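Handout, section B. The chain below has 360 residues.
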Amino acid sequence: MAERITDKDPAVKLAKKRLSVLELARELGSVSKACKQAGMDRTSFYEWKRRFQTHGLEGLKDLPPVHKSHPQTTPDATVQRVLALAMEQPTRGCNFLSALLAKEGVSVSFVTVQNILARHGLGSRYERLLALEKKALDREIELTPEQVKAVEQANPQFRERHVESSRPGELLCQDTFYVGQFKGVGKVYLHSVVDSFGSYAFGVLGTSKQPEWAVSVLYNDALPFYKEKGLAVAAVLTDNGREFCGKETQHPYELFLAMSDIEHRRTRVKTPRTNGFVERFHRTVLDEFFRVQLRTTLYESVEQLQVDLDAWLLFYNEERPHLGYRNMGRCPIETVCLFLEGKGDQIIASFTEASARQEG
């Protein structure tokens, strides 16, 4: 015997209340007036009207809530398999992973695969490669030759094989980065120097791209650091900008390098990526320092910004882990200290092994 439904049923009372609004609109000849009197918006009115025309009074009742364990929820085992495949094939997209699962007898749409990856921070190719490299550095997994090749190809430092050095100070990479236009100050530039052995970095802010600023970061910061460590600076790699290049007998930067007995190497014309170490540093300092600080602090002078930059450089060199092939998760200062302790061969050996895996 069917259960008797009375007006005391809350669902029936609510349905009749909505029906009364529909009837009121018919009596008044105006949906707007009926909605205004009943406190209902027009969108809801037309939705309830459509449901009443289709299902009668039952259509004016609220639908039952969806249970938490929805039958369409992807099983946990399938989710774990998607994540495992994403690590095995980090350069492949959701369509390819969906096809792989289909071969295993698991039907998952590419949209679902992408949603699973995005929820676990693996939505993009870069994120997957970064997660893979982190697992390798944490000794959680051992990378296959294919995975090593994919990680190294995504790392700008691996692509610039010609920029190599066997010790700190053997080759410094220098460039100039435009920071922006500051009110009351003018244009501000970052003059950077990065060691190609361990990515140890120096930076000075200036208001122009004049050669004197390029000299200052070497004379005041870089050379004293290597002198204190008992290391000689052998060469500096720059692009062909006017702050670095000119007549050797007249140009301030060229004269300074000659007087300091430092070889000046230049990148190929119109090939800025050949100075990949400093280019990568500029991307890091832009993302992690300038974009953060300039959103929260109003700087009135270059000196004020330089103070905060110096603090960030200390963090970059001595606290922030680097995932490049020289550092392998160490801070740049740790790589320098390892060399001074006589462990430079180990650092170079690890790079040589990674290079051989990629070429193989």
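Note. Residues 1-5, 156-162, 355-360 have pLDDT under 50 and may be disordered. Compare this with the example in section A.
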